[in-house]
Amino acid sequence: MDQNHQERTALQSHVLIFPIPFQGPVNCALKLAELICISGIHVTFLNTDHIHRPLLRHTDVLSRFSRYPNFQFQTIPDGVDHEKPVSRDRFMEVMSAVDAVSKPVFREMMISGSLSRSSDRPVTVLIPDACLSFVLDVGIETSTPVVCYESISPCCLWTSYLNLPTMIEAGDIPFKENDLDELVKSVPGTEHILRRRDLASFCRSDDISAPVIELIMKEARAIPRAQGLILNTFQDLDTLVLTQMQSLCPNIYPIGPMHSLHKARLTAPSSPETTFSNSIWKEDETCLSWLDKCPPKTVVYISIGSLATMTIDQLLEIWHGVANSGKPFLWVRRPGSITGGFDESSVPSELLERTKEMGCIVDWAPQEKVLAHGAIGAFFTHSGWNSTLESIVEGVPMICWPCFADQQVNSRFVGEVWKVGGGHER
Length: 426
Fold this sequence. Notes:
This is Glycosyltransferase. By secondary structure, the protein is α/β, with parallel strands linked by helices. It is 41% helix and 14% strand. It contains 17 helices and 13 strands. A six-stranded parallel β-sheet has the order 10-9-8-11-12-13. Helix 2 links the parallel strand 1 and strand 2.
């Protein structure tokens, strides 16, 4: 194939990327979008209104992506009326709103609107977050190929999503007893690794008709029907589950770690490494100069990600623990992450004094830069997939404190499969 033909094909191709409206998935999807842009392919990035507003407020994505004439943002209504990013307790509220409001609008865009075959540049490939199973239905209706992108970990995707119908059929879900240490034998490949407590949090539901179970079941049925599946992992890390997954999804593309690939492709060999922010919260870079003053591998980095929460009692227990450890600590306390009306005036004065001596607390941090800093010695993490993969890449051992979604499975694999940390359930 000659170069001119390749260039014409690239210009004619039009990829639509559609993430679910949460920080982690949008962050990864933007990296994927930029990597595709570099190849000369036209990309439309479709955000829902709720996530797009804070993204524009706290990042330079508009100016950064303006260098690509083959890129455009589009937004779609989602029926979510609150201005601030939500925590995990409102996950299903957001997903239900997207299903009710965004789905019909998206279908109209693809059938007769700005993305349709009658438009100036019709979409030729759909890359949705796999959680948006309705995109696959629209792809089939419009004869548009769909390659799903999965923002959760492959180990959770295989064990708790794709095998959820299998576990229900085998009687493993709902749990019949309260022994959470019983091994789950119906998931191929992990029969001697996975306990009930290690399954994704929704697997503990007593009601298999619960909305979250129905959402996951739709996703589990949709993924094998897509033309391909993009995963943020690499073969050597996830061979155990990728081998099994190919029986359902033969066209798997493990192109991760996404953040490392993105950094490598966008940083010129003679230039210093650059990290671009896709954060919907304002990043406090002052913590990096604080880290510069700390000895190598001494700092405990604490962050529970963009959706997880903790109670005041949990906050104080962790706070006392790190203060009594004698190790310096950098703690990210995302606005809204502490439930129950936290007031610092109720914190013991000696704990506050100890924190002034050895701690740094910020609302949000540039995590990739933090984990790459030589002062970091350990990561106290909620075990979200982006955080887990970023920590593995930088060789930072993890103390896992999983909360929901894929985090329980990730924590188990961190300790028992990859041997890069250990976990404790809440």
